[in-house]
Every structure is written in C-alpha cells, then in structure tokens.
Design brief:
69 residues; alpha+beta; 2 helices; 4 strands; globular
C-alpha cells in the first residue's frame, strides 16, 4: 500500500500546507489526486508539480466530499 492522505471538503484549504509537507515526505511529485468515492478515472488528476496541486484538489471535490492524495 502506498502512502496516502485524505482531505475533507470543509477543511482542505487549511490542510493544504500540511498536505504539501506530507507529499515531500512521500518522495515528492508526481502524485495522484482522486475523489474517494469515485472509480479509478472520474475526477482523477496526475499532479506533476506543486503548482498543479490546488487545481487538482478543487477538481476532485467536484465529485466527492473527501479527496485522496
């Protein structure tokens, strides 16, 4: 099982800084961002740089209230 973290819709903006730290602890980019309750392709983004992270998280929240990185 690969390292992961979950963001919740009400607090994700406050947690984004901590998520960036965790991503660096995971080994950095690329990472995948996906809605927790969707299949393997709906709302999924491959994030190659830190600058792409926020947009990918916003996109995933269009499909669910929890997002998996």
């Amino acid at each position: 099982v690969v390292p992961s973290l979950v963001l919740k819709d009400r607090t994700w903006r406050q947690e984004l800084g901590a998520a960036r730290v965790k991503i660096s602890e995971f080994g950095g980019y690329p990472v995948f961002v996906k809605p927790c309750g969707q299949g393997s392709s709906v709302g999924v983004s491959k994030v190659k740089t830190d600058g792409e992270l926020e947009a990918a998280v916003e996109n995933a929240f269009r499909f669910d209230t929890k997002v998996l990185i």
